[in-house]
Amino acid sequence: MINKLLRVTLAVALLSFGTVVFAGDQVQNGGFETGDFTGWTQFGDTSFNGVCSVSTCPGGYAPYAGTYAGFFGPVGDTGGIYQDITTVPGQDYTISFYLALPVGGTPNSFEVQFGAAIFTLTNSPGTFDWTLFQINDMATDTTTRLTFTFRNDPNYWFLDNVSLSGGGGTTPEPGTLVLFGSGLLGLASVIRRKLKR
Description:
Elements (H helix, E strand, L loop, with lengths): L1 H16 L23 E4 L4 E4 L16 E4 L6 E8 L5 E10 L6 E7 L2 E6 L5 E11 L4 E10 L4 E10 L7 H23 L1
Antiparallel strand pairs: 1-4, 2-3, 3-10, 4-9, 5-8, 5-10, 6-7, 6-9
Helix pairs in contact: 1-2
C-alpha cells in the first residue's frame, strides 16, 4: 500500500514539475511524396524545377527514398522552394535533407536557409550522389522560414527527405533537479510516517 501510494505521489509530482514537448516533423511533404510541391511555395525561375519519380527524373536518377524527389535546374538565375514552419522561440532545431549533384558542370549553386543559419555550395566542381546535410538554428519567432535556392545551367540538383527535429523543452539545471529530488524524498517521508500511524 505504501509503495503504491509513493509511486502515485512521485508520478503526480513529476507531472506537476513540467511537461517537455518535442516537435514532431513539421516539414510538409518533405519527401515530395504527393508527386508535386504541395506544402511548398515556388519562387524565382521555376522553368526547370519539378518533382519526379525514377522513370521521369532527368537522366533516370532515382529518388533517395520513396517514390519521388525534387529536381531543380534554373538557368541563368536562381529559383527554388520555401515553407514557413511553426517553431518555439528559444528552441534549437535541426533541418536534415538529402542532396545530390549527379552530373557536373558550371555555373551551379545551392543554398539552404533556416532562420539565420545558411549553407551554400557555389560552382561545385565535382559530382556527388545522395548526401545527408544538416543545419541547426535556434528559433527566434513562432514561424521560421526554410528556403532552398538553386541554379544549375548545365543540369540538375536533386533534393529529397527534408525533415525537422528538435524543439524540445529546456533541460533543467542540475541544481534545480537536486532541489526537486530532495523535495520528493521529503514528501515521500511525510507520506510514509502518516501511513504508519
